[in-house]
Records
---
Amino acid sequence: MAAQDNYVGLDVGGTTMKAAVVTGAGRPLSKPVVMDTNPERGQDEGLETMCETIRRAVAAANLTFTNIAAIGVATPGLMDIKAGLILDPPNLKPWKNVPVRDHIAKAFGLPTAYQNDANAAAYGEFWVGAASDVKSMVLFTLGTGVGGGIIIDDKIIEGEHSHGGELGHVRIAMPDTGRQCGCGARGCLEAYGSATNVVKRAREDMACWRGPASKLRDYYTATDEDFTAKVIFRYAADGDELAMKVVDDTAYYLALGACAVMATVDPEMIVFGGGMVAAGEWFRSKIGAYVNRYGLPFPTKSVKIAFASLGSDAGFIGAAGCARMLVQRKQ
Amino acid sequence: MAAQDNYVGLDVGGTTMKAAVVTGAGRPLSKPVVMDTNPERGQDEGLETMCETIRRAVAAANLTFTNIAAIGVATPGLMDIKAGLILDPPNLKPWKNVPVRDHIAKAFGLPTAYQNDANAAAYGEFWVGAASDVKSMVLFTLGTGVGGGIIIDDKIIEGEHSHGGELGHVRIAMPDTGRQCGCGARGCLEAYGSATNVVKRAREDMACWRGPASKLRDYYTATDEDFTAKVIFRYAADGDELAMKVVDDTAYYLALGACAVMATVDPEMIVFGGGMVAAGEWFRSKIGAYVNRYGLPFPTKSVKIAFASLGSDAGFIGAAGCARMLVQRKQ
């Protein structure tokens, strides 16, 4: 029986990996299969876990591999996308120079696409998510760090050194005055806009807050472990002025990131994804207002600012989309 | 006789326009024909001047239009590249909504490509200039303003609103602390790195200079009309410390622009063009040193920093290259 228009998408993260079979229309045929990555057990076991996750995903869809046209795998950087290699990612230590693409392709005898995880998420949103109606888009993923992906005319901007769309490290402030980023540099968007840095900024703002009484400040001390971006956004939604300042600043910083991609690739839509977008329309419109104020006037009039719609499924859906692209290109 | 592998490239600027016939190998068949643009005489006369410049270019190459396969026209923005329209460019007042592409195509009965002037210059450098050996590149043009163009895999990143590669307006500093740009915003690269702003910064640095005696300072007063970026670079080359500071700062700012495009599109090569690159290798290596210091470590190891090689011919050569691309795509 000939392979059908079905693709396995596998999204490998530092803690877990997820896979599902996705149809050619971008619809997952089951909930994703989730397995622990356990990178500390070494890359051989890691590759075998990837294969097992893929096998279980096919089983979960009540299919066999004869029904699968291709496989897509997404991993965090550092990586060499063209060569299909995981290089030396901080989230997958101690893996090094892992030939993911060729291993998977050989294990299943199927065409295998390989992509950066944030690029895959961007492609997922472009294919069947928030950006499915546009021709070009940029995704900012807001989590522990800030990642990104750029899609123009159905093509992922991978970059010559697999660093296309490393949007967390676009600087929004000069190195001499900018905030310290986890990458070692200063002024990176990530040092302002990641969930981790939203919390850091909130602690700093608390320390010098002179506005009205703040519940956020009353309830959280500098060492409180439960103090998360989610909590800050909830207090802001409830009208706490200190929390509102932190959220407002976040919108401003994210808008500066959006302005940077508008002046470079000028996309039709800019999408933000990650936990913070649960805040919803009031936060989206805050970002939009700052883009209006600080973006290049002409593209700003028309650019669409949206929140991601696929949640944490974007990665494996996008990886499946990359698999589909691979096969279609070869036809 | 069938049309041959020759293309007319026309580069329209606010003061003059230039055209020449360029072969399919990127070689101009004559020096460019130059005519005054005289935008103040209106757009109908402007369109006729474009046609006349094209006619003279074909004559200068000792050819007839039967030898020409296509025409490429580049103009400064604002524009609608897809629609082939000059919209409302500050350099071509009072022109508005000028249907350049269709007018030229109809006048000569030839396929006509239309492109932004900085994008065309980038394509020229990509096709047969400094970046002819690479697969992706970004050009920064340093003049009165700062322009740019991004080419990835033989494709120009035009942007959804014809604002792709508007690199002068990538911010390198935050709006609250950044220098005032001519566009009205603050913190744009252009407010630091254009020739105009090199001079402005030099005047500011003079006013508070506490270093050793400076000939630059001795010779130039705040109102001296001959005080240009070229002069500053010459003094810097001669070892004047004030001038060296201005040039060093310029390299730093340009490097921050380079870092921004590395984190977005991660090109194989970054090219700087315009008058300042006459300074040569010592200035290029200064920019390179700052990129090494402030760029994302992985792509920084391999990215090539180069100076443009086509000078002011890049625009019409690139426009001809766009014409060639148009015909090749249609074949």
Note: Chain A has a mean pLDDT of 96.
---
Amino acid sequence: MPSPLQNDTFLRACLGEAVPVTPVWLMRQAGRYLPEYRATRARAGSFMGLATNPDFATEVTLQPIDRYALDAAILFSDILTVPDAMGLGLSFAEGEGPRFERPLRDEAAVARLEVPDMARLRYVFDAVASIRRALAGRVPLIGFSGSPWTLACYMVEGAGSDDYRLVKTMLYARPDLLHRILAINAEAVALYLNAQIDAGAQAVMIFDSWGGVLADGAFQRFSLDYTRQVLRRLKREADGRRVPHIVFTKGGGPWLEAIGALGADVVGVDWTVHLGQARARVGAAVALQGNLDPNVLFAGAEAIRGEVAATLASFHAGSAPGPNGHVFNLGHGISQHTPPEHVSVLVDAVHELSRPYHAPAGT
Amino acid sequence: MPSPLQNDTFLRACLGEAVPVTPVWLMRQAGRYLPEYRATRARAGSFMGLATNPDFATEVTLQPIDRYALDAAILFSDILTVPDAMGLGLSFAEGEGPRFERPLRDEAAVARLEVPDMARLRYVFDAVASIRRALAGRVPLIGFSGSPWTLACYMVEGAGSDDYRLVKTMLYARPDLLHRILAINAEAVALYLNAQIDAGAQAVMIFDSWGGVLADGAFQRFSLDYTRQVLRRLKREADGRRVPHIVFTKGGGPWLEAIGALGADVVGVDWTVHLGQARARVGAAVALQGNLDPNVLFAGAEAIRGEVAATLASFHAGSAPGPNGHVFNLGHGISQHTPPEHVSVLVDAVHELSRPYHAPAGT
């Protein structure tokens, strides 16, 4: 029997419901900028040792919740767990990004690809259940996955890339191969997110981190269409409560209308977007999540408060659709170089400075 | 006495005038993907040896013009010549990007910064004059500079960056310092481009390569305003002919209306933008340059022709403002890994497939 939720501001804002203050959480809030995270990471021995152990994952997921007045927790995991479960062989070299031993480079490799048995991802679902218990209803827990396209980028490139040359060569030269990868990814991601919901995730987010590198036209066919396939298969409720679906395309500004029409409850936006204009483009039925530049956190308290105020004001500019439907966040993951005390300034400023926008008229 | 221009399609398209076919040139068309470039580079001994020698610069500028039916040449030079002339100490380590020995990291360094004596950039203007002579009127020559903001990124970071942490920290924490750098850069860039025009450049382009990393609001104050200052100071004519001004902000899609209102003749756009929608946003008085994903050139001839056709069709979608005002280009520099023979396919496809759009009605 799960503990009753003590702070549902985040879930309510995702669904466009009235809230007393704008809720806030930060992408990568459980991460290297926190000394307590680095201590756990050292005990775990490696990044994979940390990410695949439900106890460690629980510990680091709760660290920012203990330190800051955040309104949501997000599962600590890696974006590449699903392709790893497909047998591509994920590894992390010290000081480098992720790498696959067996990237998808030819027709035979693509032909062999299959939707993985979710039992291989049991450690993730165990972590979700463990975190839910540890949170004991303090804030809701967000589950997540990479989008089919973003996973495909890593699966074909085998690592991060500056130019996405290999996956885009496949896109333009052998679109049939890429479509097969994406169809399998869409099915796998939907199963993966639904299993996270079953394990206790109270909202789920699809990170289309590399959607923004696609050309207009290609984005719609190779990213958006497969994100839509995932969303159509996702569970909508758990424990009798709606599970919000969040889609975040980094660099997705050019396609906000189309992203807003996907059927997700919340669209995440990066800092290049003006929130008021974005609201007009996605429509009043969709909430927005974002969008402070993480580099603001390197400035002093006064500058941080000023930028928080500007972000809140941009959401409420015009204000025709009312004050609801905003989840404050960064426009990208928090930098490992962030001074931890600056995050307090940010979180407190969001709550304090957003309150007047939510006050009933006349108060 | 300059040779008469034999192919003015590019200049005419920049000014929205009627042309028989859509002109095409490619960002970084003189570069590493060409074996003849690599041979000249080897003779020059180093990248700086190549870029600072007018004879070598002339040779490599003409190489793609000799090989392909391109409609414009662009000065071979480096984007960081101006900060180098300011005394920041540019160097290129083998296999790495550019690096400054003395980046602008504190108030004292910013206070010492001055607009450089253009005599220090004489080698660039000599290259422009030499290239004009060598071209002998075959196609027009484009001069260029980095934008004030893009130069400032390198000047503060000291090298390329993934997150622009140092320059954005200055932006949010000490905007006064950044504004001083940008004001000096704007003056220097205007002097630099005007000297290129005096030396024979028939069009000039401002590369705001890193404008797209800025947040909405910050882009307008720290990039756009200073690009506008440059444009206001630029010469409009040379040899009795209009010198088109081109502005390209990589990732500038969110701000196309504002960029289109800068007063430039041409706005360059990357591949995330739909050309027909971009036309509607910048207005009929401004031409567009772009916007094929350079990765298309890794596919085969049929796919390249298909993507060229799609790009041309996107420009002419709706077509209310008529068929003119398009300069075909990539949405970013050509990759060093591009097969040279694929560039022929691209260039010839642009000319062949655009001709019907430009035919007089009824023919």
Note: The first helix of chain B runs from residue 9 to 14.
